[in-house]
Amino acid sequence: MKRTTLVMVAAAVIMLCAFATPAPAQMVWYSLDKASTAAPAQSVARTTVRQDLVPINTGAGRVYSPASSIPPSGSAGVTAHTDVEVFVPDGFQPDQASPPMNGYGYNTPASIACRYRVMSGTHVAGCNPNAAGLTNASGGSQTIAIVDAYDDPWISDDLNTFDSQFDVTAPPSFQVAYASGTEPAFDTKDDGGWELEESLDVEWAHAMAPGANLVLVEAASNNISDLMAAVTVAGNFVMCSAATCLSGGSGVGEVIMSWGTGEYSGETSYDSYFTTSGAVYFAAAGDAPGVSYPCTSINVVCVGGTTLSKYPGSAPNGNALNNSQEGVWNLTGGGSSLYEPLANGQSVLANTLSALNNGTATLPTGPVEGVGLSTTNRAVPDVSAN
Questions:
Q1: Model confidence over 266-323: pLDDT tens digits?
Q2: Which pTM does this prediction carry?
Q3: pLDDT tens per residue across span 153-203
Q4: Which residue of 13, 26, 165, 208 has the lowest C-beta tally within 10 Å?
Q5: In sequence order, what are the beta bridge partners of 213?
């Protein structure tokens, strides 16, 4: 049973621009393409890996947060935490629940592709996972570089299992790059939480853009300095398809960062890391109220989380059974940065907030969101998705 097929909830991740600091003289990575059977050099017994998860609420199931997603006191600007949670339906253990399942209480690559209209075929109303005619996404032609900490020794095996289970076409190429030049250690202190994040990030980036080349850049640790070194390597892979760009390049693509740290006064000094030519940088808004870095960077697209709700067996208020609604996830991050200035393109938002704050806005019916937010500092998230 592959752990990563269990993940059903996570904050979205991610944004923009590029001066890159020099990378280490020699990078080490291995390529995993359709025909590859390459295995990581580091030998870690899969059966010895623990997934100790802390339940954070109950209901129709249990939502767990791994240790890697719980930032310790004093970690802001020092270490980063993952943005991943795991949902396990009531009556199941984590290694027993595996979609597709009966009912509508989950999503698949095909149902998410339908929701955002990136499917390969005709749109299916409602996009419920058991509906006939759903097809997977078919796009992607450039490079997606995914930055995470520590090593996931089984990422190739997990991606192959994910693709097989959900009938997703294998990527044109998949590489794992070691940002420090040496294979990182496995995340034993967080019981494999970063491994879980890596699998989630790789599998769903691939599911939404199956034609893109994938690069997983593994930082030596979750220290901010190590992660920023990995961000530089990721930008290089997007720009010139290599860990180090000797003469520049013309490549384009995305760098994904599904992790964050609390805001701190020196964060703006790292903004230049997100400015590689041709790369758009995305970061997660987080799994808790408030804001985090690098999502607040003016050079990054900050992505919040949403919830997809499907109607039950009866049709309330005349809505068809196969209908669904998308709303803000109640745990997604958001707000105003303490240190980053208002981003380009947010002047309309600033004017709206100013009108709300001074009472001159024409208010809509219902609750008003945003009163009290800064009109001079960056607001996040920029976009939200499931």
A1: 999 999 999 999 999 999 999 888 999 999 999 999 999 998 876 655 555 555 555 6
A2: 0.81
A3: 999 999 999 999 999 999 999 999 999 999 999 999 887 899 999 999 999
A4: 26
A5: 143
Q: Which residues pair with 176 in a beta bridge?
A: 30, 216
91 torsion bin: left (phi>0), alpha (psi -120 to 50), beta (else): left
- Please state the separation of Cα 145 from the chain's center in Å: 12
pLDDT band at 228 (very low <50, low <70, confident <90, very high): very high
CA–CA separation, 32 and 130 (whole Å): 32
Q: Of 213, 163, 188, give the one whose Cα is nearest residue 5.
A: 163
**Separation CA 238–CA 123 (nearest Å):** 31
Q: Closest Cα to residue 261, out of 233, 238, 283?
A: 283
Query: 314 vs 89, 107, 207, 295, 327, CA distance in Å?
Result: 22, 20, 31, 40, 21
Structure tokens at 222: 């979750």
- Quote the pLDDT of residue 344: 77
Res 364: pLDDT:
54
Q: How many CB atoms within 10 Å of residue 155? A: 25
Structure token pair of residue 357: 């704050």
Question: How far is CA 323 from its chain centroid?
Answer: 26
Instruction: Look at residues 254, 255, 197, 201 and name the one whose alpha carbon lies nearest to residue 222.
Output: 197
**pLDDT, tens digit, for every residue of 91-115?**
666 555 566 666 666 789 999 999 9
Measured distance CA(133)–CA(123) in Å, rounded:
8
Length of the chain equals: 386
DSSP for 310-367 reads E--SS-GGG--TT-EEEEE-TT--BEEEEEEEPPTT-HHHHHHHHHHHHT-S-PPSS-
The rounded distance, in Å, linking the Cα atoms of 37 and 31 is 10
DSSP 3-state of 227: helix
Residue 168, CA distances (Å) to 118, 219, 226, 288 in order: 13, 27, 32, 31
